[in-house]
Structure to design on (477 residues):
């Protein structure tokens, strides 16, 4: 279908974009790979579309202190090619298809907050944070607090997601993203990102697990992480963590997977992601 | 360009103040006034009468609408024409012109010739999109394995051929382009000729 009519705005700076968003009927357009399909189905019908493509402040990737700053407009294909955590590159590489990765952006993927989004899982496992800019200025939100419901986030309607900040990998750390994709759509039935950090003696000092496709939002599996900290990451430790990954989560069921199947796959993919992260941390 | 040939579909929708767009399509500068909500695929098909680019779905999944934007494959049904202001679009109609004439087979781009020779189409509806995605794939990887072709074309669906001949065709085109020492976009490529 053809989208409903809208005004098209193309701000040249972040200030202009924030000003344009003051109109309650306005919506931001990044890669358009989630928003345009919704507009074509007329599930979304904004009065004004604010195209971010000229906003320089939202672009670029660079190291800032102990973090990697990734501009919100960074495309999936660019994230897939970054020299960074395997979980992040892997999630970008497994998002959608060639054409979608060419246009879709990391800021759009996080803001869209699809309950089965791949990049959110990786960013959760890595302990990333989002920087938002709005009429009230700038603020930082840990990704763990960002996803508040299906397609809902902690950003207010007037705020622009400017960048994502990811802690830099350190010695003895490793990560991985493991996804069970639905055959037709390619979206995750289950996706698990894991990050592990070991000290010199091989004891687990850092653990992050991000899960997508399973609950109402992508989430960080804190209970499972706690079980790994201080452990030697034996098979038995990983098994215990995998059993805890669904704690406090209502597992989704749909035409593609029953709750039982999803839960079983979630445990399996948690074991796989942890094992893969561990083998990378040991290199 | 049939602007005079009666009301195009785009003119029928036109009820919002139009915006000006200028872009390059198949090497030629194009300037039009359109409604902001005009999808790139409709702009190409309705405004420019470039109907080689197909519309196969309403869910951004089939890839039949794939074109090259600044050399890279994108789904033209999932972009607005105004978004590509000032940029460079190549559709299947312009594919053959990317390579020098002496490297065309019966006037076709090596990718098109390979699809023909390998019988990589039946109804042909998915073919324009397949060609554009395959061009992007071979830019990035001049010698893909069968598995890499399958993964590289995951954004394009075909309902007829069963994919096997498509994979063979892309690998065959890869060979011809390597032998000719050029990329699918016609730039010289060093060091990949066998
Ligand atoms: C065929 C297909 C397959 C796909 N498969 C997958 C998949 O397997 N896994 C997956 O995770 N995703 C998938 N996607 C979605 C894709 O990853 C999108 O690119 C992504 O969800 C949205 O990014 P975008 O830049 O395209 O955002 P847009 O579509 O432009 O915007 C999405 C939403 O985010 C808002 N927004 C965008 N940027 C900002 C910003 N900087 N600040 C605040 N709000 C902003 C917009 O207003 C809109 O509400 C698929 C999409 C398609 C079409
Ligand atoms: S028509 Fe564009 S993806 Fe199907
Ligand atoms: S040849 Fe018919 S859809 Fe591919």
């Amino acid at each position: 279908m053809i989208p409903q009519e809208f005004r098209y705005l193309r701000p040249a700076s972040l200030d202009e974009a924030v000003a344009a968003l003051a109109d309650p009927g306005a919506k931001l357009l990044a890669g358009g790979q989630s928003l345009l399909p919704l507009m074509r189905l007329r599930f979304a019908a904004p009065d004004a579309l604010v195209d971010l493509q000229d906003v320089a402040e939202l672009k670029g990737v660079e190291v800032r202190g102990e973090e990697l700053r990734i501009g919100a407009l960074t495309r999936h294909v660019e994230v897939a090619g970054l020299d960074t955590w395997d979980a992040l590159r892997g999630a970008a590489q497994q998002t959608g298809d060639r054409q979608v990765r060419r246009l879709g952006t990391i800021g759009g993927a996080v803001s869209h907050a699809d309950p089965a989004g791949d990049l959110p899982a990786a960013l959760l496992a890595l302990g990333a944070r989002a920087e938002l800019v709005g009429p009230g200025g700038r603020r930082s939100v840990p990704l763990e607090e960002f996803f508040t419901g299906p397609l809902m986030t902690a950003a207010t309607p007037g705020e622009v997601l400017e960048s994502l900040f990811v802690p830099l990998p350190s010695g003895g750390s490793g990560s991985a993203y493991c996804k069970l994709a639905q055959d037709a759509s390619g979206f995750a039935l289950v996706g698990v990102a894991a990050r592990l950090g070991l000290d010199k003696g091989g004891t687990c000092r850092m653990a992050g697990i991000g899960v997508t496709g399973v609950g109402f939002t992508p989430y960080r599996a804190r209970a499972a992480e706690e079980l790994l900290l201080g452990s030697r990451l034996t098979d038995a430790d990983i098994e215990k963590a995998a059993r805890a990954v669904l704690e406090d989560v209502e597992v989704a069921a749909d035409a593609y997977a029953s709750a039982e199947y999803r839960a079983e796959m979630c445990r399996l993919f948690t074991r796989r992601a942890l094992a893969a992260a561990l083998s990378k941390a040991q290199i | 360009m049939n602007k005079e040939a009666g009301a195009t579909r785009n003119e029928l929708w036109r009820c919002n103040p139009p915006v000006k767009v200028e872009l390059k399509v198949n090497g030629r500068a194009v300037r039009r006034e359109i409604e902001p909500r005009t999808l790139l695929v409709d702009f190409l098909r309705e405004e420019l009468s470039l109907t080689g680019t197909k519309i196969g779905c309403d869910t951004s999944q089939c890839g039949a609408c794939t074109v090259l934007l600044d050399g890279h494959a994108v789904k033209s049904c999932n972009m607005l024409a105004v978004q590509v202001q000032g940029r460079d679009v190549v559709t299947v109609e312009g594919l053959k012109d990317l390579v020098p004439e002496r490297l065309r087979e019966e006037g076709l781009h090596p990718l098109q010739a390979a699809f023909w020779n390998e019988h990589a189409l039946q109804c042909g509806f998915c073919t324009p999109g397949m060609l554009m995605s395959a061009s992007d794939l071979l830019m990035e990887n001049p010698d893909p394995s069968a598995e890499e072709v399958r993964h590289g074309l995951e954004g394009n669906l075909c309902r007829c051929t069963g994919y096997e001949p498509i994979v063979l065709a892309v690998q065959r085109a890869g060979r011809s382009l390597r032998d000719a020492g050029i990329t699918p976009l016609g730039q010289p490529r060093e060091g990949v000729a066998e």
In short: The domain at 173-280 of chain A is CATH 3.30.390.50 (Enolase-like; domain 1). The interface with chain B takes residues 1-8, 29, 32-33, 36-37, 40-41, 49, 51, 53, 96-100, 102-103, 185-186 of chain A (CB under 8 Å). Chain A has a mean pLDDT of 97.
